[in-house]
Every structure is written in structure tokens, then in C-alpha cells.
């Protein structure tokens, strides 16, 4: 339930209210008077697709029973249930991405995102992989705030190991408190789980982080990175598209979100341009022919998966239609170590062609399939299958593609 908020006539009024709210919550935190019942500001980045361009998000949510009240001639919307205000939706410039700002209690709004809004096929979320976080770290945090205290959280769980029939995606993906839900003892089965947090100056962390990642691959799966605020506190960016505001300025946090989303938008469009499989008729001297364009995504596991884990990935993802990858299809077993899947991405129900083996995942996107599929696949493979992967598109390293997006976006 979201604490009661006034009715806003303009977007400026809304932002002024959120700025004041953020300031008050930061004062409570600094004075050790903060109550979990207060509710920090949370922002979520939602993604539609290049083809839909956000035009149907209002009607889609309305068809799901939500009420959307325009503010400032539709520059943003109050998102309401029958009884309360859940948050405020703001379209990004292209309307392919939308921001949802909320002061609702964490468990309430997270549950709404994970079990309702994120299950709508027309919507997906920002998915920040370990490689993307490292680019934020190297290009923004370390150069701009080397002596500020930062916080990074690393989390990986081999969810496909020791699978015993439980719902492996029923838990909340992030807890706003200090403890991860993965710390709850009776939730953990007989499989590898790593949960680690580092809090230190950016300069010091930058000195030892590469060695940590070489020594223990779980440090490659970054769950959260707190970007320092200009004065006090910071903004926690989570791998699944959530930002928790722990600073006194909402507008500053929003500026960070817009920067990250802009870079992410450029990256997704680059992925689509590189990967989309298409056939074009061309005229040749001896008749007509076809030009085939596009290239695959290749995710190589540095250590092959066990046969049991590999079979669990295929069985749970495709045959049972469960799990975090949000893919579905009919697996065709070529042998006990290779599967082809003519599948669909459950975001927009668009086609995707896949090859799974214990050594790699190969994905091909037909023209029109949302490039965000790649970001989600890489992020969730690192989080729930194996963090130690190498990712290439058209022979180019995924992390280099992210760096190109930073440069093109001016990040």
C-alpha cells in the first residue's frame, strides 16, 4: 500500500512532491529514525518494443484492471488500483521505455511488478548484466567518485542444480532491506548459492575487484550497484530494472535513470541491428538470389555444465514453461548433449531460435524480435546458471558492444 499522496495537476508538481519525499526519508535514515513502513522511492524501468513503441501500454494496463489518470496532458500518469495509488508512470522520450515511480512498501510494489505487470507479454524490464554494471563502474562511478563510499552486491544461485520440483521463480528478486531472501536457510536447496556485499571507497574496490573476479567467478554476477549521489547517499540500481532512491534528491536519481536507460536503449537497438535474421531478394547476373543478414548470440560457458544441470535447464525452461529465462518452445533433442529449440520469447511472443549444449547457448533473433531478449538472457544466465561466461555477437564481445553504446550515447 502506498502512503497517501496529493492529486497533481502538473508533472512539475509531482516531481516537487517526490523531491520533498526523498529529502524527508533521507533525513530519517541519517537520524536513524527510518521505518520500513515509510517506504523509500522506488523506480522501475519498463520496456515495450521497437515495434510497439509504447503506444499500447496505457490500454494494456487498463485492460488488466488498472486505472491510469493523466497528469499534465499525459506527460505522466497516476497508476491506480480500485483502492489506492500504486505509483506514477512516466514515458521516456521514445516511449519504448517507461518509468514507474512509487513510494509503496517494497514487498507490495515488487510483488505487483513481478507477478502482474511483468507477466504482461507486451512489457519487459531493464536487465543489467554483470558486464553492463562493470561499464557503469568503469565509465561513471570510478572516474567521477573515486573517494566516495559505494556498495556493490553480488548474488548468484545455481537454480537448475538439485531441482526438486519447487517453483524456482516464485520468490522476490530483491529485498530492499539489508538481507537477501537467499539468506533464508530453509529456502536453500542442495545447490550453489553465493551472496556477497562490498562497501568501501570506489578507488579501493577498483584495485581488488578484478582479482576477486578472476579468483571467484560469482563476483562477475553483480546484483546491485549503488551510484553515489552528489551530496549524501546514492541510488541503488538492481539487475532487474529497479532503482531504490537512498538520497535526498529524486530528480538527481531520475537523471541517473535516464542516462542508464539512454545507453541501454542504444545497446538494444545495436543488438537488433546486428542480430536480426532477414532475407533480402537481390538481382544477380544469372538471375535473382537472396542475401541473408544477421548473426547469432553465442554464450560460452567457461566450464561446461553438468549433464544433470543442462537437462534441468531445458526441461524447466521449455518443457515445463517455468524459470527466469522467460522463453518457451518445443525442444528437439539431437542427442543427450544438444538441443534445438524453435521457441518464442514470452515478451511479445516473438520467435527465437536456440541451440543448447552443456558448453554453450546459441540464439538467433528473426527480424522483429525484441533485442531486449539478449540482455535478459545474459543477465539471468549469469544469475541462475553460471556467472562465468563469455558472450559474443557477430564475433564481437558483448562487453565491447556495451562500451560502444556508452560512447554513442555520450555516457
What brief labels describe this structure?
single chain; 411 residues; seven-stranded antiparallel sheet; TATA-Binding Protein; 20 strands; alpha+beta
How is this structure best described in words?
- The chain is an alpha+beta fold and 411 residues long.
- Among the domains are: 11-125, TATA-Binding Protein (2-Layer Sandwich); 295-409, 2-Layer Sandwich (TATA-Binding Protein), CATH 3.30.310.
- Helix content is 32%, strand content 29%.
- The chain has nine helices and 20 strands.
- The protein has helices spanning 11-30, 57-63, 106-115, 130-144, 202-215, 250-275, 307-319, 372-384, 398-409, and strands at 42-47, 67-71, 76-80, 85-91, 97-102, 124-125, 149-157, 193-201, 222-228, 234-238, 242-246, 278-284, 287-293, 297-301, 327-335, 338-345, 350-356, 360-364, 389-393, 396-397.
- The strands form three sheets. Strands 1, 2, 3, 4, 5, 6, 7, 8, 9, 10 and 11 form an eleven-stranded antiparallel β-sheet that branches.
- α4 packs across α9 and α6 packs across α9 (398-409).
- It is globular and about 70 Å long.
- The relative contact order is 0.14.
Short account of what is shown:
The protein has helices spanning 11-30, 57-63, 106-115, 130-144, 202-215, 250-275, 307-319, 372-384, 398-409; strands spanning 42-47, 67-71, 76-80, 85-91, 97-102, 124-125, 149-157, 193-201, 222-228, 234-238, 242-246, 278-284, 287-293, 297-301, 327-335, 338-345, 350-356, 360-364, 389-393, 396-397. It is an alpha+beta fold and 411 residues long. Among the domains are: 11-125, 2-Layer Sandwich (TATA-Binding Protein); 295-409, 2-Layer Sandwich (TATA-Binding Protein).
